[in-house]
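Inverse folding, one chain.
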């Protein structure tokens, strides 16, 4: 798809590493929303069920000061928004929100090779 799009548009590969786990407000790590999950009944395995698609900033100093309620994010929205932030950082020569690793590093190397040839 990227190849087809590149015939009519400029395509810039943008790393997605940690984009769905990085707080939009403070750039700290986001994780499961444990306090909300713990208010739900245990699942059939006797474990606290995860609320899929919900992330909470794990920095206790981030977000409104309402006890347990920190910044909450829809995981997909958070990831998409942070990919946009990464693109803006790439275009402005600033570091990414989190250093890419593994698959992201390989794709960045391939992308650099393509644009240097
Ligand atoms: Zn935060």
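Residues assigned per position:
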């Amino acid at each position: 798809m990227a190849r087809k799009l590149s015939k009519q548009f400029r395509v810039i590969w943008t790393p997605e590493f940690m984009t769905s786990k990085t707080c939009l407000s403070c750039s700290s790590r986001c994780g499961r929303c444990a306090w909300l999950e713990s208010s739900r009944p245990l699942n059939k395995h006797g474990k606290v069920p995860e609320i899929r698609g919900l992330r909470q900033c794990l920095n206790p100093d981030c977000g409104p000061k309402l006890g347990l309620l920190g910044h909450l994010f829809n995981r997909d929205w958070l990831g998409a928004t942070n990919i946009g932030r990464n693109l803006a950082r790439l275009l402005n020569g600033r570091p990414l929100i989190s250093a890419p690793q593994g698959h992201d590093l390989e794709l960045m190397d391939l992308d650099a090779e393509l644009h240097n040839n």
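Strands lie at 30-31, 54-57, 72-74. The helical segments are 2-6, 34-37, 75-91, 103-116.
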